[in-house]
Amino acid sequence: MKRGEGRDRRKGGADLAGRQVPPGGIVLVQDGGSLVAVAGPSVAVCLWCPDASVACMAHFARACVYDPALATARFGNVAVPRAIELVREAAGDLPLEAQIFGGAACPGQDPSIASGNVDMARRVLAARGVKVVSEDVGGAKGRKIVFHGQSGHVAVVKVHHLREEDWNP
Q1: Of the four, 61, 103, 148, 154, which is 20 to 30 A from 138 by CA?
Q2: Is 44 exposed, middle or buried (0-12, 13-18, 19+ CB in 10 A)?
Q3: Distance between CA 92 and CA 88 in Å, rounded?
Q4: DSSP string, 53-66
Q5: What mean pLDDT comes out for the span 77-102?
Q6: CB 56 within 8 Å of CB 87
Q7: 58: which strand partners?
Q8: pLDDT averaged over every residue in the chain
Q9: Nearest-CA neighbor of 61 among 144, 107, 121, 140?
Q10: How far is 168 from 140, CA to CA, in rounded Å?
Q11: pTM of this prediction?
């Protein structure tokens, strides 16, 4: 390992760069770009249509909202269906695949928040016929997720605690 290389890797390095998707964000890319999220109890759902080079990430913090006046993408029952709609608009009826990441139980927080987020992602995807091909959920570690829109590959870096530099690459 060259001098300074380990330090760059700990900071995320160039290969972990991409467009940040915060909780409550939905981003679609058609240029092969990368999407990045940092998740604790929140969940990032990555959708990919390999035949159309379309990728989308929905990142939400809470499982559901029932009041339409409060419905935003911060809720899984709003974010995931909207992300599926966006991909379908861009790719038509071509097959999609999904990957689910996050849902870590954080100290001092009700663990049902994290598990509820994961459950909501799974239920919405199943109800809409989107196959989940991979997931890394639960546990006690936060994750930095980098979703490569060109290949559909995802890199996940697990961390003991989330730091400011994890949120702002």
Answers
A1: 148
A2: buried
A3: 5
A4: TEEEEEEESBS---
A5: 96
A6: yes
A7: 26, 45
A8: 88
A9: 121
A10: 21
A11: 0.87
Q: How far is Cα 148 from Cα 33, in angstroms, rounded to an integer?
A: 6
**Measured distance CA(81)–CA(154) in Å, rounded:** 21
* Three-class SS state of 15: helix
Displacement of CA 161 from its chain's centroid (Å): 18
Structure tokens at 67: 């009041």
Beta bridge partners of 125: none
CB 115 within 8 A of CB 103: yes
* Rounded distance between C-alpha atoms, residue 83 and residue 37, angstroms: 15
| % of the chain surpassing 70 pLDDT | 85
- What average pLDDT does range 145-165 have in this prediction? 85
Residue 135 makes CB contacts below 8 A (sequence gap 6+) with 99, 100, 101, 118
Section 108-121 average pLDDT: 93
